[in-house]
């Protein structure tokens, strides 16, 4: 690929086109930026530096200049070396998104992009999509998910993720790398924060999938209220060429109208369970109908309900998945429809999804003398409720004691704390409240807040802030027939504490070690 560069003139043109430019300082039209960054510690030889963040300090810009920066983009003027150009804008985050796309030669134009949003199910749906399209394209499908970032076909082109949707500069860098590695497709999760913080500003998708929405991510550093959360989620549809919407989502009418405001009806597809379609006032295009649902997985029928001259995608096709639960049938249905729209045939889809597993999602460990251990990333009320209620519906666990180990993140998702308390009241018998990425908050305060929403007449509560010890206690104190659910952490290999990613073995590794010692 050609050497990356961005001319100063091109920078001004882009910013003016989007009404972002306020003024320039010491501007040099002949500058060519050979690097871009928002981290002042990076090599910025002939570089353009973005003064990003609410807590940005002038010292960061000075460090960037020492590392080779010849221009900066900022919402504020800084008095620095006159040889350095200042570009003052209305929004650094928007400017960074647009200029990153230009610097990396608009890699999105070389990829067919399917983007998924929803309060729950984004990661599972994205893994289903990747499994199908990677087989279809002969390993030419990239994936940006909460867990993994897959940029190419080789192991050294696969990385662990820090954010569900990364900063725009990192996003376009990774798209550029994916294109350079020969990728033709990209499947990605898009969080509400990605729109709130302009990480995907200006990015268009070939297909946008809207799974569901429930109250979440509402707090001091996130969305001020549910309306703002919903507004940000709906931006995915507005920025997609075609839309696929779960008709059973909350706020469906607003979501559907948002899609209708920017699309022709033929570019909007609706899906739901068959039972829901039978009661719906809307014309549902595709339905799924459960056939089997147990701990071994699920199977279901898909049907195309469209009539007339429209070419139908499928007719009573049966699919099986390893992940149980109606909510996973919903996720698989979205992935199947999305890939059917790309003319992927039944055999490829069927073989792909029935082998798909998701790290940290509904993983199981058996014990000889203690309970059955389930590990799941469920990290809000509806997800925890769904997992626990599904397990309790299974004949094997109908009379089981339910023990849950859970914590809540610090400085974000504050509303989850009440949600965890509610789910525990409704579905659990014993709760071990522990730490889970406490950030800059005191984990004891977080645990006490969750505890304040729990009915102690119904649930036995223990607070143990050391997560490994909490898991050990939960397993040790369980008996044969009990259910032990390790929730919310999944495959996350870190605890985020006071701004530092502290290595953590993952819940699965901790549980295996505990069981191994108990059964020596």
Automatic annotation (TrEMBL):
Keywords: Cell cycle, Cell division, Cell shape, Cell wall biogenesis/degradation, Ligase, Peptidoglycan synthesis. Its main location: cytoplasm. This is UDP-N-acetylmuramoyl-L-alanyl-D-glutamate--2, 6-diaminopimelate ligase. GO terms for biological process: cell division; cell wall organization; peptidoglycan biosynthetic process; regulation of cell shape. The keyword Cell wall biogenesis/degradation applies. GO terms for cellular component: cytoplasm. Pathway: Cell wall biogenesis; peptidoglycan biosynthesis. It holds the Pfam family Mur_ligase_M. It is found in: Cytoplasm. Residues 360-490 form the Mur ligase C-terminal domain. PANTHER family: MUR LIGASE FAMILY MEMBER, UDP-N-ACETYLMURAMOYL-L-ALANYL-D-GLUTAMATE--2,6-DIAMINOPIMELATE LIGASE MURE HOMOLOG, CHLOROPLASTIC. GO terms for molecular function: ATP binding; UDP-N-acetylmuramoylalanyl-D-glutamate-2,6-diaminopimelate ligase activity. Residues 117-338 form the Mur ligase central domain. Belongs to the MurCDEF family. MurE subfamily. Its EC number is 6.3.2.13. InterPro entries: Mur-like_cat_sf, Mur_ligase_C, Mur_ligase_C_dom_sf, Mur_ligase_cen, MurE/MurF_N, UDP-N-AcMur-Glu-dNH2Pim_ligase.
């Amino acid at each position: 690929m050609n050497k990356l560069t961005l001319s100063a003139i091109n920078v001004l043109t882009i910013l003016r086109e989007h009404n972002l430019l306020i003024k320039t300082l010491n501007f040099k039209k002949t500058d060519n930026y050979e690097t871009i960054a928002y981290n002042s510690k990076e090599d910025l030889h002939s570089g353009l530096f973005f003064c990003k963040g609410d807590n940005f300090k002038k010292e960061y810009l000075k460090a960037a200049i020492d590392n080779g920066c010849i221009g900066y983009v900022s919402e504020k003027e800084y008095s620095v070396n006159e040889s350095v150009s200042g570009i003052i804008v209305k929004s650094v985050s928007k400017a960074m998104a647009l200029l990153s796309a230009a610097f990396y030669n608009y890699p999105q134009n070389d990829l067919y992009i399917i983007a998924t949003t929803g309060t729950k199910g984004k990661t599972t749906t994205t893994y289903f999509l990747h499994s199908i399209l990677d087989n279809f394209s002969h390993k030419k499908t990239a994936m940006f998910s909460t867990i993994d970032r897959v940029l190419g076909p080789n192991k050294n082109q696969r990385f662990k993720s820090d954010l569900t949707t990364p900063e725009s500069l990192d996003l376009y860098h990774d798209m550029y790398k994916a294109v350079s590695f020969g990728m033709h497709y990209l499947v990605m999760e898009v969080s509400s924060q990605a729109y709130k913080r302009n990480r995907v500003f200006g990015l268009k998708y070939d297909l946008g999938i809207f799974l569901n929405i429930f109250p979440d991510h509402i707090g001091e550093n996130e969305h001020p209220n549910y309306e703002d959360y919903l507004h940000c989620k709906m931006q995915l549809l507005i920025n997609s060429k075609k839309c696929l919407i779960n008709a059973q989502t909350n706020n469906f009418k607003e979501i559907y109208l948002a899609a209708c405001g920017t699309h022709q009806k033929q570019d909007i597809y609706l899906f739901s369970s068959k039972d829901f379609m039978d009661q719906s006032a809307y014309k549902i295009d595709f339905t799924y109908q459960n056939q089997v649902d147990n701990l071994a997985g699920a199977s279901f029928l898909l049907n195309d309900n469209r009539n007339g001259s429209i070419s139908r995608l499928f007719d009573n096709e049966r699919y099986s998945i390893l992940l149980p639960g109606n909510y996973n049938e919903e996720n698989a249905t979205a992935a199947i429809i999305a890939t059917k729209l790309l003319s992927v045939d039944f055999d490829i889809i069927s073989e792909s999804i029935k082998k798909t597993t998701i790290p940290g999602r509904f993983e199981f460990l058996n014990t000889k003398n203690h309970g059955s251990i389930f590990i799941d990333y469920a990290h809000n009320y509806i997800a925890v409720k769904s997992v626990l209620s599904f397990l309790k519906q299974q004949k094997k666990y109908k009379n089981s004691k339910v023990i849950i180990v859970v914590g809540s993140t610090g400085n974000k998702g504050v509303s989850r704390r009440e949600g965890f308390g509610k789910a525990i009241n409704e579905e659990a018998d014993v709760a071990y409240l522990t730490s889970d990425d406490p950030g800059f908050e005191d984990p004891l305060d977080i645990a006490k807040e969750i505890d304040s929403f729990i009915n102690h007449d119904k649930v036995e509560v223990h607070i143990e802030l050391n997560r490994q010890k909490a898991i050990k206690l939960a397993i040790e104190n369980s008996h044969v027939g009990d259910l032990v659910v390790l929730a919310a952490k999944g495959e996350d290999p870190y605890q985020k504490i006071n701004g530092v990613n502290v290595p953590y073995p993952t819940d699965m590794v901790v549980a295996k070690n505990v069981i191994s010692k108990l059964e020596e």
